[in-house]
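User: Could you go from structure to sequence for me? I need the amino acid at each position, not a summary. Structure tokens:
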């Protein structure tokens, strides 16, 4: 990858990459950090990255960086929760978007990624396949399974509420 291709990748993909990460973690500063980390990794590995595959590399790197950060935060939050006494509370959901967000967070990582790319970012199946190194049929299967889970999850919440 050349310096020109790198600069072109920044111009072409930084906004999309930022929106993708922000939709997943809902933290502006963390999303900016993840995007910056992704471009830093691209720069350090620029000699091994094909200029035509830079989009896939960036989204995959950002996704893995985001997952690592989420796991790290969950471990530290879990450690903090262990020291606090448990308080009883009722979890009533009046907002469908909150339920949907919770349901999406319960999806397996690959299903969450393809659903976010398809439904939030508007990529087609072929583009998602290129970004995730999956075949188009695998992408369709993961999206189908994710949507089926979301439908069942939202239905079960409404039955309880």
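Assistant: Here is the amino acid at each position, in order:
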């Amino acid at each position: 990858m050349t310096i020109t291709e790198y600069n072109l990748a920044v111009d072409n993909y930084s906004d999309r990459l930022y929106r993708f990460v922000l939709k997943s973690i809902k933290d502006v500063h963390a999303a900016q950090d993840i995007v910056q980390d992704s471009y830093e990794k691209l720069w350090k590995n620029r000699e091994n990255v094909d200029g035509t595959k830079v989009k896939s590399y960036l989204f995959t790197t950002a996704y893995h960086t985001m997952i690592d950060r989420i796991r790290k935060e969950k471990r530290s939050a879990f450690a903090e929760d262990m020291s606090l006494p448990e308080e009883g509370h009722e979890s009533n959901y009046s907002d469908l978007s909150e339920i949907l967000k919770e349901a999406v967070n319960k999806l397996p990582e690959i299903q969450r990624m393809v659903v976010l790319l398809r439904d939030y970012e508007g990529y087609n199946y072929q583009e998602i396949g290129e970004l995730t190194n999956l075949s188009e049929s695998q992408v369709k299967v993961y999206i189908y399974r994710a949507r089926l889970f979301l439908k069942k999850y939202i239905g079960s919440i409404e039955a309880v509420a």
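One structural detail worth keeping in mind: The chain has a mean pLDDT of 80.
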